[in-house]
Write a structure and sequence with these properties.
The chain is an alpha/beta fold and 180 residues long. It has one domain: Flavin prenyltransferase-like (Rossmann fold). Helices cover 44% and strands 21% of the residues. It is built from nine helices and seven strands, in the order βαβαααβααβααβββα. The strands form two sheets. Strands 2-1-3-4-5 form a five-stranded parallel β-sheet, with helices on both faces. Strands 6-7 form a two-stranded antiparallel ribbon. It binds flavin mononucleotide. The site of flavin mononucleotide has 15 residues, from helix 2 and helix 5. Flavin mononucleotide (FMN) binds next to helix 2 and helix 5.
Amino acid sequence: MAEIKHTVVLGITGSIAAYKGADLCSKLTQAGFDVNVIMTASAQELVRPRTFLTLSRNPVMTDLWSVPDWRPGHIELSERASILVIAPATANIIGKLACGIADDALSTFALSHQGALLIAPGMNPRMWANPAVQENVEKLKRRGAVFAGPASGRVACGADGDGRMAEVDVIMQQVMKILN
Ligand SMILES: Cc1cc2nc3c(=O)[nH]c(=O)nc-3n(C[C@H](O)[C@H](O)[C@H](O)COP(=O)(O)O)c2cc1C
């Protein structure tokens, strides 16, 4: 039987760990997945879409309105995506997913997506510890979302604690586990 080439949608949000998303994108492509990247506006302040275009070898969705297809891009993608991986995931996108908000390409895609959802949070430990964030995480877990990390350690702003994005290899292992 022919091997299924899974479509992986990689969501990149405005966490300082967005640059690590490029490494994840590269590893997913090298593993043979059809990788389609959606970037939030904040993510594009930190890393340029062209990095992901080159690494994924697919167009990068940067906003809802720029796809020149008769079908909205998020719907077309949701018809073939096996998994949505959001790495790094900001406190903001976690809150939006928990509340069902669809106000940009990534959150709108997430609402139309029916496959697996893997979230790798990356944020300052004080943000991660915030009860609003923790309640949103619990809500998403109850709905079946899988979380990779966050890890403990030093974050970019110098603080120590839980909030570092999980290592890319750990996220890769989770993707493989979910898709196998
Ligand atoms: C330099 C910089 C780094 C940031 N890093 C993080 C971060 O690691 N995690 C986080 O949750 N928010 C971080 N933020 C805040 C988010 O970018 C902000 O909440 C934004 O609205 C997130 O939008 P998005 O979820 O649509 O990408 C950072 C902001 C700046 C200016």
